[in-house]
Amino acid sequence: MHKRPKRIKLIIGLTGLFIISFRVSPAIAFENDITLGSTAKFFGGILAAHCLHEGAHALVAEAYDTDLDWEIGTYNQPIGFAENADSDSKGFAINSAGLLAQVLGSELILQVDSIDKNDAFVRGMMAWNIINPILYAADYWFIRKTNQKTRNGGYQGDIQGIEYYSNESKANTFAIIMTAAAAFQGYRFIKRQPWAPKWMNGESHSLNLDMKPSGGFLLTCTFKF
Q1: 141, 41 in Cβ contact below 8 A?
Q2: 18 to each of 33, 117, 202, how far by Cα in Å?
Q3: Which pairing describes strands 77-83 and 148-149: parallel, antiparallel, or unpaired?
Q4: Rounded to whole angstroms, how far apart are CA atoms 59 and 68?
Q5: In whole angstroms, what is the distance from residue 40 CA to residue 124 CA?
Q6: Is the overall model pTM greater than 0.90, yes or no?
């Protein structure tokens, strides 16, 4: 059965939520009081970040004309999918799209000055955009609950999917890059919060992530004496 109509509706719904997310959440400077409204906005931000992740999978699959079979409460996740990629490059792109979208979404939030970094909704989005890539990598390396090989020779989990369509070395490299990027973005985001520790805003140190022309990256921390 061809599932293109349902897939298109899913893509429109997920990406539409992300596009309008900043419109439905007006910026409120220094939104530090915990209220019912701010709590709802925070969890709404987490939901938007989750939709960004899953929507990216769907968008890339649509671009490659690849069917995704979505299921709820499977693969040790609230929502999971199985793809029918007809090439390794397509499978790699589909599985990597979710975490890449979250990292790019975080960078957009950090770079655009008009986005209020102290808004509860934005904090929720950033929280999941930062935590999820790190959790995925930790699960792939140590826990092996979401990312694992299946008995029928298949796989489950985004990073395990990257390994399936490439190799373990590339999957490890991807996990390291996503973890480093998310951690660095988390550091930069926390620095902009009014409750950030004073040592983070001092001039005695700096943390930098530099991309190398060869394709790698260099994470450096400088201390002034």
Answers
A1: no
A2: 25, 16, 34
A3: unpaired
A4: 11
A5: 10
A6: no
- Residues 102/53, Cβ–Cβ less than 8 Å: yes
Residue type, 197: P
pLDDT digits (tens, 9 = 90+) for 140-198: 999 998 998 888 888 999 999 999 999 999 999 999 999 999 999 999 999 999 888 88
